[in-house]
Write a structure and sequence with these properties.
The protein is α+β, with helices and mostly antiparallel strands.
Length: about 130
């Protein structure tokens, strides 16, 4: 976290095995992820789009600065965790925005995780080829 900057709110977002801590402050729309710029950390445009969805929905693209710490999982899970954290932070600041974010599905924690491999099978559900004789 930057010295001297006061954050309005701090929230947590999770998806798959990723955990994102989102610190939101007034600013110009600068997003920092793990002390790196957003475009540097997420080179794929789809991940950057997922992260910016709550701001575009509410029209707040250049109003807040974000400092995000994220760990675990891959880039897709991290982007989803950040999106949930941002949506929760925006609600903490303006509770009247909750219905719009809820209708868009940004407040629902995606509970899907990788299913574990079972013994005697090739994967979670895939089995080895069956031979009758």
């Amino acid at each position: 976290m930057a010295k001297g900057k006061t954050y309005k709110t701090q929230t947590v977002g999770r998806r798959k095995s990723s955990i994102a801590r989102v610190y939101l402050a007034d600013g110009t729309g600068k997003i920092t992820v793990n002390k790196r710029d957003l475009t540097d950390y997420f080179p794929k445009a789809t991940s950057r789009y997922v992260i910016s969805q709550p701001f575009e929905l509410l029209g707040l693209t250049d109003k807040y600065d974000l400092n995000i710490n994220v760990k675990g999982g891959g880039t897709t899970g991290q982007a989803g965790a950040i999106r949930l954290g941002i949506a929760r932070a925006l609600i903490a600041i303006a509770p009247t925005d909750r219905p719009a974010l809820k209708a868009a599905g940004f407040l629902t924690r995606d509970a899907r995780k990788v299913e574990r491999k079972k013994y005697g099978l090739a994967g979670a559900r895939k089995s080895y080829q069956f031979s009758k004789r």
